[in-house]
Amino acid sequence: MPHLVIEYTGNLDADPTRLLAAANEALLGTGEFGETDIKSRCVRLEHYRHGVEARRSVFVHATLSILSGRTVETRKRVAQALAQALAACVPPCADAEVPVTVDLREMQRETFGKAVLPPG
Amino acid sequence: MPHLVIEYTGNLDADPTRLLAAANEALLGTGEFGETDIKSRCVRLEHYRHGVEARRSVFVHATLSILSGRTVETRKRVAQALAQALAACVPPCADAEVPVTVDLREMQRETFGKAVLPPG
Amino acid sequence: MPHLVIEYTGNLDADPTRLLAAANEALLGTGEFGETDIKSRCVRLEHYRHGVEARRSVFVHATLSILSGRTVETRKRVAQALAQALAACVPPCADAEVPVTVDLREMQRETFGKAVLPPG
Prior knowledge:
Three copies of one chain form a homotrimer. By secondary structure, chain A is of the alpha/beta class. The first copy, chain A, contains two helices and six strands. Chain A has helices at about 15-30, 70-85; strands at about 5-10, 40-45, 45-50, 60-65, 100-105, 115. Chain A has a four-stranded mixed β-sheet with strand order 2-1-4-5, with helices on one face. In chain A, helix 1 (about 15-30) runs antiparallel to helix 2 (about 70-85). The two termini of chain A are about 25 Å apart. The mean pLDDT of chain A is about 95. The interface of A and C includes residues 28, 42, 110, 112 and 120 of A.
């Protein structure tokens, strides 16, 4: 951990490699996580819809899962640093705002499972 | 928010556009969410398995993430409205029941991150 | 429930059918779940990044969602059984460890929505 999922609507001309690099740098920059612990993925959404009225559906949303135990203040700071880092490398839309949101959730430390497969 | 993910097994002849429209209408109809706040995606699963015995694996599952603070009664009503709306537009299977389930989870309001990219 | 999502980086030569079979057998083997309740999917990640430095990014991560109400001890045992079962059928990398992790999260039982579509 942390485990990060970045989703973006397929109508955005976003660069997943750039988003991942920016996100991981931002997470490392918070000082909360070990460099080798950050594991991220980026998903381009194919089917999506914003609201019910006719409009351009466009959004970026990240789900960051961290082990439980950090203060609200720390979590808030991490979520906001991530939102800003992502917003800085999402291309703007000509005709719509692009909301960039971060859901920071806690994984229960006591019940986190792990196994490591050695090189071979 | 709310953020909705609808997953369906790839052996169902479901229409993602229709599922998204029905889901967002149902969420708006609960009176709990602003129209512009509803952000949904639909994912067709390619690799899936129901149980361990030989059977037709088929299911629809939605994860609805809403900000924390609503009562259990409200959340229950929202989850059930969504399950029914989805079930109403999933095509039936000739030889199997199709379970449609909704996991309603709460996102921590205090640590939700947000940035908005202006049109440009 | 349980609902399981297995993610693996696309540079691993993993077999999703085998991972799903092993995972569902392991979950059934814990004695905690009904055979027909286990619903799993496997996702091959296309865009991912481990940390910020130059390295081979490789990982397997599972998110297991179960209904709330089991003890920490039970959940720990389930998560560990799953991690070991997955590790046993992930192919090793020549030049890197492969971390296999399991996030066991609880779905709120009171607000879980369900509808069943009869065969037709």
